[in-house]
Design a protein that fits this description.
Length: about 260
């Protein structure tokens, strides 16, 4: 068991590293094993059945290697696979997922107009449909299928001019017409600065990373498996299904890239 007592965190690729940053801030004494399935990214343009299969294989691997909890740091994989992964493992270890941050957006912007950027799969699946339906009347949510965007983040070079062009083609038409934006894919927090360049410096952005980190603390406490406050700083292992030196470097770089508020 290579990752005994580690918290397993996974995503289709590099996106979950934005969540890992929040987890590390909230829980500095925990050991984290991060796995990004970059060889199969993006998930958001695959069928739910394929996403489920890929996500389940990663969860199986994490459990076999001794992880004490799993964070599905991917909205797409959560929507497609969390119920199955929970049914298999949640009785023994905490399984946490992501949810597009519609609730915090509705709370901060009552009756506001809110764009929801997410992958095609996330927006099509039942979890999002139910959530947006439940919050109808609290805010107006406008879903934007961001095809291709997570794939561009996977390639790195977040400041390439064509990144701004892609963002402009996806969300530029809403400039000046919305009160806030939900980043419903864990790849997008790495693009906060670029999104503000396109949509205006002061536009409020919402993502689920910090909420998931607080939730993980609660679940580890409930299970009595929270690392003690006096233990040394935790280890972080970054792993990917794409095992090239360039990929390793990209993962490391993103772990140390400050994410704007
Ligand atoms: N990071 C993922 C999410 O939160 C998925 C991106 C993708 O692979 O399409 O939805």
């Amino acid at each position: 068991m290579r990752y005994k007592n580690y918290v397993g965190v996974f995503d289709s690729g590099v996106g979950g590293i934005s969540v890992l940053q929040e987890l590390r801030k909230e829980l500095p004494h925990e050991d984290f094993y991060y796995f990004g399935d970059s060889a199969n990214a993006p998930y958001g343009e695959k069928s739910p059945r394929v996403i489920r299969k890929l996500a389940m294989a990663i969860a199986d691997h994490m459990v076999e290697e001794g992880c004490k909890a799993i964070v599905i740091a991917c909205n797409t994989a959560t929507s497609a696979a969390a119920p199955k992964i929970r049914a298999k493992y949640d009785a023994n270890i905490p399984i946490l997922g992501m949810e597009p941050a519609l609730k915090p957006a509705a709370k901060q912007l009552p009756h506001g107009k809110v764009l929801v950027m997410a992958t095609p799969a996330t927006l099509k699946l039942e979890k999002y449909q139910k959530l947006s339906h439940r919050l109808e009347g609290e805010a107006e949510f406008i879903p934007v299928l961001c095809k291709g965007l997570a794939g561009r983040v996977e390639q790195g070079d977040l400041d390439a001019p064509d990144m701004l062009e892609l963002l402009d083609s996806l969300i530029g038409p809403y400039r000046g017409q919305v009160d806030g934006i939900v980043l419903g894919c864990t790849h997008y927090p790495f693009l906060k600065r670029q999104i503000r360049t396109v949509m205006g410096e002061n536009i409020p952005l919402f993502d689920g990373g910090a909420g998931t980190a607080r939730q993980l603390r609660r679940r580890l406490l409930q299970h009595d498996i929270l690392a003690p406050e006096d233990s040394p700083e935790g280890h972080i292992i970054l792993d990917s299904s794409l095992r090239t030196p360039q990929e390793k470097e990209l993962y490391e770089t993103l772990l140390h890239t400050p994410i704007a508020d």
